[in-house]
Amino acid sequence: MIDVEVKEISKEFSGLIVLDKISFKVRKGEFFTILGPSGSGKTTLLKIIGLLENPTSGSIIFNGEIIDFKKDNIQFRRKIGFIFQQPILFNMSVFENVSYPLKIRGFDRIHIKNRVREILELLKINELKDKNALSLSGGEAQRVALAQTLVYEPALLLLDEPTSHLDPRNTSIIEEVLLKINREKNTTIIMATHNVFQAEKLANNIAILKMGKIEKIGSFNELFEKSKIFPFIRMENIFHGFSKISSYGTSIIDIGGLQIEAAFEREGDVIIFIPPEDIILSLNPIISSARNFFEGKIIQIIDMGSLIKVKVNCNRDFFVQITRKSFDEMNLKVGNKVFIAFKASSVQL
């Protein structure tokens, strides 16, 4: 087990401040979530904690020992597991991929066989053991990547949006396994996500990261009790952009790849939020008075029981919340071409 202290961590790229004096502590055996929108600095922060990136300033402290980033820190690196948003696998069988970390650590063949079988069964991928890992679906590949990491029982597990492109079944399996190893093995876990529902389900404590700064830290219930942080909790559909006032008394906001019309007047840099429940989704072009129309593709489906959250890529990612009835009627699947629309009045500062 490892306890982690992040102390005054800052990171700059070509003069741009990506992380600004980030500080927090994660106890041994804690499930800690970094919650924030795309571009908030989550991945960079995880890479620094995982000793894959050097900070511009500040310290990472493991079990009371300050990390010297000038050294290789192999004794800590071998205790850390890192799962990326896109799985990184070798061109070999699933069994060979999962067994590789044990081979380089010098375990004997019998131990490797038994341990790999155990972890494949845990992640429900034992039937895939002889398949080439590069032939798997996205969800299967991510489960193999997780198995490849969990097989050597890391003391600290870092996860960067591990289920953001997965279907509900694969997401559920991975979440179940993460909770199991956290509770039964007391593994310290730090996970970056933009999904507030996932943070609520998994985390003991949550740090809300926005534009490179920590806004708040606390349990889900503590954060929701403080209404002022509600805009930071609702991380879906938060965009940074540049706004210009139109001749119609509205604002046209360039969010990088898309222009959004809003029913307010504001010039300059802005951060906007579009509630997922305010967005219309259809398999056909939408006839509506809404001022914002985009064509996109479904890249993720999140099952929330009576509601379904659909992630649609239209050069930028939008989350749309619909009822299960609507979802079933449209027979939506990952990869479907869809159309979304929302009113200018739905765009909030």
Sheet with most strands: strand arrangement: 6-7-8-3-9-10
N-to-C terminal Cα separation, in Å?
42 Å
Outline the biggest β-sheet: 6 strands, mixed
Query: CATH H level of the largest domain: which superfamily?
Result: P-loop containing nucleotide triphosphate hydrolases
Please identify, by name, the CATH architecture of the largest domain. 3-Layer(aba) Sandwich
Shape: globular
Instruction: Please tell me the overall pLDDT.
Output: 91
Write a short abstract of this structure:
With 349 residues, the chain is an alpha+beta fold. Helix content is 26%, strand content 34%.
Task: Give me the secondary-structure topology.
Blueprint: E1 4-13, E2 16-26, E3 31-35, H1 42-49, E4 57-62, E5 65-66, H2 74-77, E6 80-83, H3 94-104, H4 109-122, H5 138-150, E7 156-160, H6 168-184, E8 188-193, H7 196-202, E9 205-210, E10 213-218, H8 220-225, H9 230-233, E11 238-245, E12 251-254, E13 259-262, E14 268-273, E15 280-282, E16 292-303, E17 307-313, E18 317-323, H10 324-330, E19 337-342
Parallel strand pairs: 3-8, 3-9, 6-7, 7-8
Antiparallel strand pairs: 1-2, 1-4, 4-5, 9-10, 11-12, 11-14, 12-13, 15-19, 16-17, 16-19, 17-18
Helix pairs in contact: 3-4, 3-5, 5-6
